[in-house]
Design a protein that fits this description.
The structure is a single chain. By secondary structure, this protein is α/β, with parallel strands linked by helices. The protein contains six helices and nine strands. It has helices at about 15-30, 75-85, 100-115, 125-135, 190-200, 215-230; strands at about 1-5, 35-45, 45-55, 60-65, 90-95, 120, 150-155, 160-170, 175-180. A hairpin with a 4-residue loop joins β8 and β9. α2 runs parallel beside α3 (about 100-115). The radius of gyration is 19 Å and the shape is globular. Mean pLDDT is about 75; it is low at about 205-210 and about 220-245.
Length: about 240
């Protein structure tokens, strides 16, 4: 099953607010490893670099977060350069919220083999575990149905609410979904269709047919705006019924 953490920071938030949100998130995670954040080196949109000091030993760690859908090989090479050549820190955590693909995955494997003690990769599955262990999100529920296969688990993490979105399939494409709160609050006015549209799920959950790409893009733009307006209150889960046999 594919796992992904989607960190959504809307345009209505200032650059400082976006940076503070990501920094607070990773500060909590680093504190679990006995590190404290001493400096924000860089913040650009969905990327942040933090310099951290270990509380119990002489150890400085560089944390780089790529909170975007695609990580390229150069991202990992630049991070390795900062650690191994420029020696900006004694150890590094490379955090990526989507699974590494192709060339990037190959570079990560090479770095693990050659510098396992210096570079730690934290992917979406490990990130979910850390957030759960830190008490920042609730455990993801499971839907058990012999006719459905779980294909993807998404943690949607926003300043306003957090939600688990499961995708299930009866064939090759997603056919069902479930959505529920990930922070023990209710998703009172968050529209499940809006969430699925924002996540680019490749099925119309309520049976909608799309006339063309422009219509679908327009719908997603409208839903994205509604997603930011949603109030962060109420456990909501929606699983469309199985089709008649």
């Amino acid at each position: 099953m594919i796992k992904q953490v989607r960190i959504e920071l809307s345009e209505e938030h200032s650059q400082k607010e976006k940076g503070d949100f990501l920094e607070d998130m990773f500060r909590t995670l680093m504190e679990k490893q006995r590190y404290s954040v001493v400096q924000r080196i860089r913040f650009t949109g969905t990327e942040i670099d933090l310099l951290c000091d270990h509380r119990d030993r002489s150890d400085t760690a560089l944390v780089e977060c790529k909170a975007r859908l695609t990580v390229v090989a150069d991202d990992l090479k630049n991070f390795a350069y900062d650690l191994l050549v420029a020696k900006k820190a004694g150890h590094g955590y490379f955090v990526h919220t989507s699974e590494l693909q192709q060339n990037a995955a190959g570079v990560a494997d090479e770095l693990r083999r050659g510098h396992e003690s210096l570079i730690t990769f934290i992917g979406p599955e490990k990130l979910m575990e850390l957030l759960q262990d830190a008490g920042m999100v609730a455990r993801a529920p499971e839907l058990r149905n012999p006719q459905l296969v779980a294909t993807k688990l998404i943690l949607l993490y926003t300043p306003r609410f957090k939600a688990w979105v499961h995708l299930y399939a009866m064939g090759a494409a997603p056919s069902h979904y479930s959505m529920c709160s990930a922070d023990n609050s209710e998703l009172r006015s968050v529209d499940a269709d809006a969430v699925l549209a924002f996540l680019n799920v490749d099925f119309a959950p309520m049976g909608h047919e799309w006339a063309d790409g422009d219509v679908r893009a327009s719908f997603r733009r409208r839903m994205r705006c509604q997603l930011h307006i949603g109030a962060p209150t109420a456990s909501r889960r929606h699983t469309p019924p199985l089709p008649p046999r």
